[in-house]
């Protein structure tokens, strides 16, 4: 029972006891989960442990003998990273990128969902339009925005010239200048994140009880007040579902960064993912790359765990 | 009383909201239209200055070049190989991931057991591991067993990566089915398995379709892992293929657009098919959970 | 009697072979061994331009009875990745591998030394500069196929306009001629941009190995060297700082494009193709593209000149630029049939095959092929076709310079180019940035066991 009310997707027993009437079935549920669990352990769990081991060795792909563990050198890779300015810079960039992307995506999606919930004309067409960014693989999103923001032939600069805001091609180097490089990458990943988030928040908004709003209207609440004190708190579970899904998928942003700037120029947009790729794949330093991978795994898991917990809490409170 | 008198005002407000919504969403979708149009324009209209905003002529040149139908152009892309590998890896992994994920999701939705939360969290968190981090050890281990540069090896990885999300979605769908149905099936003498097969699985078919399409697209779009595991056209899927193309021809924007359009086809079908189910699958846990 | 007759026949055969050779037909080589039943496996570079080679392979199979199996067909960087992985995992089960002078140093522990498989006569036609670059620790590791190097490309309209020349004379006190050193290029490029004659003065690729290589080139042309004899980084010397400052100044003043740091080869070439660049170094390989009036505004409006010498800060040590590389073949140490692989290489690098490839526009690495194509171009419609070849022959013969022959060239580049980008973009000063790069490089080299 105690386990149940903590289930991330299970509602706490406090509110709707009917729904938690899960069935006692001995070993049967384990046998259902077993194949999935074995596969995940085999393809994700074991390799991760192996990479933990590799991260304690000086392994380089082209030097097969370097894959050996010695206590003396075990922490060398981690020490190196802690003393590596580029690592810290890419960590900082990654955190800034995640924080801005998540927050701005959320705010925009919330606004869009409120907007869409009031639409009376062409709801279904608008929803299809909303889903358009979902049709793009992250790698396509990256390519498309790299082209749009190209200094010389890009859509954005061409448009700015056409409306007379800038005079010549190449005047704004979007993917180069600080902080435009980060901003363009963030714009691209926000664009990719909007549909799923908006859909979830819209579904939540449409499911809210209308009586509450009518009552508030009688009391003379303004539109903003209604949103702030009724819609927003009631949407909390939906918000956390959206944020959790996003945190599961956020590493896909790597594809965007890889294609738009590949961490450049001059490491201005270097993130953990691009730095790992450079170290491990291009420079074949698997030991060092694995050490950094573990740091990203740790961060991602923490991030996701946080949202999951919030999700659980939000449900129980309601 | 007061609410009555704001009638005309409200109608005007509605119109404004509608207009804003339309403008915003058209802008959101605009990049896609631009990509599609670009794929069918003559190259000279794309790179010229001042820009040509409205196409004067449409052409299939980009596709002719890509498929090697144009003898003058040598930048042929191995579209057939990418298509084959993408379909194989995504198809195989979807079937297996959805089967296993559905079973797990069913267990989480329907049954009470020890370590329910721990197991659920464990499975979900495996999904949070970034592809970059996973690709390095997978590469080393797969190398030993001959699974690198192998479509089946790739499919195996995609199964593991797709199980968690499938399990989550299916957990939501199964919980939409009242427990009473299952219980009455037990009373009628069904075992756990036959109750699942005869009653719950058929009822969750729409959800299953949604989960399948999600899994398929995740594999179809995956880039980080395949770019490390696949070393040539024997296993390269569309994303690394497209990446290699743009690395080689960094200013061939039309070629990029043309390949993008091909790659988007399954996603377009998906959006048309699952609009409705998607929402209920993603949000069920919150609505009634 | 019979013996005499046989001897006569052999003599006759030899003489006729000599005569045929004298008849000026380019010859195949490597067909003198019976390889029936042997399968030669080959990991090779792909792409449409290499079709000549595949047509030739059929001739080889016919003549020797061998079967050639292509086990991989990839672009240059992808095949580099494949070779690294296969060598590391002991999976290089092929007899011939594509190779490149810039990459060969990192493969040497895994390659078969070739000097014992080739006679002096067989090696004689190849450019000594390239063979030198492929000889590491006294062992020859590859046989070159074709090479590339960069001449100065300049816009003819800017140099043939008397008004511009007069204005330049007024402004600088010197005549406007096609530049021969980097400081002249600097003055002219700035003049063209500041007076609106050209929207850009110069362009260069601004990231990855392409940027590192161009810096390396300007640095050695100015008399510098990236590493000293103990493999200590020495690119942060006065010469390196001067070169980096030149590039940073160009960026700040709009002489090079604002998106320089995003550009790779084709992005750079696109600018020149659009007639937007006054002057630049560019690979010979782009010639056909630039001369195609359907795709390039610069077609017919550009000339070529030998690479520039560097900045005068280098004193007497300045030399012509000539960062170069050559595509080549190697034999992996783990090859199942090394002798058969060598035969195939002899054939594919023979005068005949090399000549046929040179007809597609590749720069050959054999003296005999140079003679032929320059003779062929004697009555070309465009005199630049011939000038180009004569110039290229001089550059490949005299100016050919590979990157430092260390296995860490690419890891070094990955350390170096972001620092150089930061200098170009003005994030750090030249000395400071190069010092930081030198520090990291030293660490990397120490890890690799150099000191």
Structure description:
The complex is a heterotrimer of chains A (318), B (289) and C (451). Chain A is mainly α and 318 residues long. Chain A contains 14 helices and one strand; from the N terminus they run H-E-H-H-H-H-H-H-H-H-H-H-H-H-H. Mean pLDDT of chain A is 84; it is low at 1-19. Helix content of chain B is 77%, strand content 1%. The two termini of chain B are 38 Å apart. Chain C has two domains: 17-147 and 325-388, D-Maltodextrin-Binding Protein, domain 2; 152-323 and 408-447, Periplasmic binding protein-like II (D-Maltodextrin-Binding Protein, domain 2), CATH 3.40.190.10. At the A-B interface, helix 1, strand 1, helix 2, helix 4 and helix 5 of A face helix 2, helix 5, strand 1, helix 6 and helix 7 of B.
SSE diagram, text form:
The complex is a heterotrimer of chains A (318), B (289) and C (451).
Chain A: H1 2-6, E1 23-24, H2 28-55, H3 76-82, H4 85-118, H5 123-130, H6 138-148, H7 155-162, H8 180-207, H9 210-218, H10 223-234, H11 236-249, H12 253-260, H13 272-282, H14 286-317
Helix pairs in contact in A: 2-14, 3-14, 4-8, 6-8, 6-12, 8-11, 11-14, 13-14
Chain B: H1 2-5, H2 7-39, H3 43-46, H4 61-66, H5 79-110, E1 111-112, H6 116-128, H7 131-145, H8 151-175, H9 179-187, H10 192-203, H11 205-221, H12 224-229, H13 238-248, H14 253-287
Helix pairs in contact in B: 2-14, 5-8, 5-11, 6-8, 8-11, 8-14, 9-10, 11-14, 13-14
Chain C: H1 2-22, E1 39-45, H2 51-64, E2 67-74, H3 76-88, E3 96-100, H4 104-107, H5 120-123, H6 128-133, E4 135-136, E5 139-140, E6 143-148, E7 152-155, H7 156-160, H8 162-172, H9 182-194, H10 208-221, H11 238-252, H12 265-273, E8 279-281, H13 287-290, E9 302-305, E10 325-330, H14 338-348, H15 351-358, E11 363-364, H16 367-376, H17 383-399, H18 409-425, H19 430-447
Parallel strand pairs in C: 1-2, 1-3
Antiparallel strand pairs in C: 3-10, 4-5, 6-10, 6-11, 7-8, 7-9
Characteristics of this structure?
heterotrimer; A: 318 residues; mainly alpha; MetI-like fold; B: 289 residues; flat
Write a brief caption for the model.
The complex is a heterotrimer of chains A (318), B (289) and C (451). Chain B is mostly helical and 289 residues long.
Instruction: Please state the overall shape of chain A, judged from the principal axes of the Cα atoms.
Output: flat
Structural class designation of chain A: mainly alpha
What letter string, H or E per element, gives the SSE order of chain A? HEHHHHHHHHHHHHH
Radius of gyration of chain A over all CA atoms, rounded:
24 Å
């Amino acid at each position: 029972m105690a386990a149940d009310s903590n289930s991330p997707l299970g509602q706490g027993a406090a509110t709707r006891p009917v729904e938690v009437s899960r069935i006692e079935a001995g070993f049967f549920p384990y046998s259902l989960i077993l194949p999935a669990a074995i596969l995940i352990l085999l393809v994700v769990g074991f390799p991760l442990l192996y990479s933990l081991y590799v991260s304690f060795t000086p392994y380089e792909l082209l030097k097969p003998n370097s894959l050996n563990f010695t206590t003396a050198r075990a922490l060398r890779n981690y020490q190196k990273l802690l003393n590596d300015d580029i690592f810290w810079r890419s960590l900082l960039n990654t955190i800034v990128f995640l924080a801005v992307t998540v927050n701005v995506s959320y705010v925009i999606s919330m606004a869009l969902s409120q907007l869409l919930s009031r639409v009376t004309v062409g709801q279904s067409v608008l929803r299809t339009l909303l889903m358009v960014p979902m049709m793009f693989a992250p790698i396509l999103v990256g390519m498309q925005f790299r082209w749009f923001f190209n200094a010389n032939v890009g859509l954005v600069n061409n448009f700015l010239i056409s409306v007379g805001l800038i005079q010549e091609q190449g005047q704004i180097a979007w993917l180069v200048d600080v902080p435009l490089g980060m901003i363009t990458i963030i714009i691209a990943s926000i664009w990719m994140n909007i549909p799923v988030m908006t859909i979830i928040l819209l579904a939540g908004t449409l499911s809210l009880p209308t009586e509450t709003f009518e009552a508030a209207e009688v009391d003379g609440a303004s539109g903003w007040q209604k949103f702030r004190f009724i819609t927003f708190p009631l949407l909390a579970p939906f918000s956390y579902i959206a944020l959790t899904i996003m945190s599961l998928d956020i590493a896909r942003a790597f594809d965007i960064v890889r294609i738009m700037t590949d961490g450049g120029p001059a490491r201005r947009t270097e993130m953990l993912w691009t730095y790992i790729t450079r170290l491990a794949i291009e420079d074949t330093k698997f030991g060092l790359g694995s050490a950094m991978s573990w740091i990203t795994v740790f961060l991602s898991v923490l991030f996701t765990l946080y949202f999951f917990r919030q999700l659980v809490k939000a449900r129980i409170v309601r | 009383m007061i609410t009555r008198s704001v009638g005309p005002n409200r109608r005007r407000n509605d119109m404004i909201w509608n207009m804003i919504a339309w403008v915003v969403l058209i802008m959101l979708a605009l990049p896609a239209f631009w990509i599609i149009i670009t794929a069918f324009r003559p190259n000279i209209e794309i790179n010229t200055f001042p820009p040509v905003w409205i196409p004067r002529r449409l052409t299939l040149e980009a596709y002719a070049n890509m498929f090697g139908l144009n003898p003058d152009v040598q930048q042929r892309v191995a579209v057939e190989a990418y298509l084959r590998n993408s379909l194989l890896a995504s198809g195989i992994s979807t079937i297996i991931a959805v089967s296993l994920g559905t079973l797990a999701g069913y267990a989480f939705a329907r049954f009470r057991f020890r370590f329910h939360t721990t197991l659920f969290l464990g499975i979900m968190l495996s999904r949070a591991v970034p592809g970059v981090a996973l690709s390095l050890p997978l590469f080393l281990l797969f190398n030993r067993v001959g699974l690198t540069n192998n479509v089946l090896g790739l499919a195996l990885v995609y199964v593991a990566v797709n199980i968690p999300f499938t399990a989550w979605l299916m957990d939501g769908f199964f919980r939409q089915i009242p427990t009473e149905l299952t219980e009455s099936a037990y009373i009628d003498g069904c075992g756990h398995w036959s109750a699942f097969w005869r009653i719950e699985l058929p009822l969750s078919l729409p959800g299953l379709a949604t989960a399948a399409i999600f899994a398929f697209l995740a594999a179809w779009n995956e880039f980080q892992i395949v770019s490390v595991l696949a070393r040539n056209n024997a296993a390269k899927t569309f994303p690394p293929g497209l990446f290699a193309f743009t690395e080689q021809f960094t200013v061939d924007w039309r070629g990029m657009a043309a390949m993008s359009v091909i790659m988007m086809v399954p996603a377009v079908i998906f959006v048309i098919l699952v609009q409705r189910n998607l929402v209920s699958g993603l949000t069920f846990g919150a609505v009634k959970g | 009697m019979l013996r005499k007759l046989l001897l006569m026949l052999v003599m006759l055969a030899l003489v006729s072979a000599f005569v045929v050779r004298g008849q000026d037909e380019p010859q195949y080589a490597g067909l003198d061994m019976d390889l029936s039943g042997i399968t030669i496996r080959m990991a090779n570079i792909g792409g449409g331009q290499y079709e000549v080679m595949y047509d030739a392979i059929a001739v080889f199979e016919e003549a020797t009875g061998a079967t050639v199996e292509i086990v991989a067909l990839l672009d240059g960087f992808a095949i580099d990745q494949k070779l690294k992985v296969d060598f590391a995992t002991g999976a290089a089960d092929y007899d011939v591998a594509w190779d490149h002078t810039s990459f060969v140093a990192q493969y040497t522990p895994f390659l078969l030394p070739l000097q014992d498989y080739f006679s002096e006569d067989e090696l004689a036609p190849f450019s000594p500069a390239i063979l030198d670059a492929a000889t590491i620790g006294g062992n020859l590791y590859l046989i070159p196929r074709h090479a590339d190097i960069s001449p100065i490309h300049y816009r003819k309209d800017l140099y043939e306009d008397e008004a511009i020349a007069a204005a330049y004379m007024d402004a600088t006190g010197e005549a406007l001629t096609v530049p021969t050193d980097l400081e002249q290029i600097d003055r002219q490029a700035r003049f063209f941009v500041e007076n609106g004659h050209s929207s850009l003065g110069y362009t260069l690729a601004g990231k990855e190995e392409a940027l590192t290589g161009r810096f390396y080139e300007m640095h050695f042309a100015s008399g510098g060297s990236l590493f000293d004899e103990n493999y200590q980084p020495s690119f942060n010397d006065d010469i390196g700082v001067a070169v980096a400052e030149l590039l940073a100044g160009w960026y700040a003043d709009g002489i090079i494009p604002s998106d320089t740091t995003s550009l790779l080869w084709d992005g750079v070439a696109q600018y020149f193709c659009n007639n937007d660049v006054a002057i630049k170094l560019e690979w010979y390989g782009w010639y056909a593209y630039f001369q195609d009036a359907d795709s390039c505004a610069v077609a017919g409006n550009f000339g070529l000149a030998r690479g520039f010498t560097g900045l005068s800060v280098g004193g007497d040590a300045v030399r012509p630029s000539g960062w170069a590389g050559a595509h080549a073949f190697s034999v992996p140490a783990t090859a199942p049939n090394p002798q058969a692989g060598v035969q195939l290489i002899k054939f594919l690098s023979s005068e005949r095959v090399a000549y046929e490839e040179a007809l597609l526009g590749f720069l050959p690495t054999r003296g005999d092929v140079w003679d032929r194509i320059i003779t062929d171009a004697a009555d070309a419609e465009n005199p630049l076709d011939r000038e180009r070849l004569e110039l290229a022959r001089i550059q490949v013969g005299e100016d050919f310079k590979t990157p430092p022959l260390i296995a860490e060239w690419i890891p070094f580049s990955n350390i170096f180019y972001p620092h150089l980008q930061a200098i170009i973009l003005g994030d750090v000063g030249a000395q400071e940035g190069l010092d930081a790069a030198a520090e990291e490089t030293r660490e990397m080299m120490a890890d690799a066991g150099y000191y």
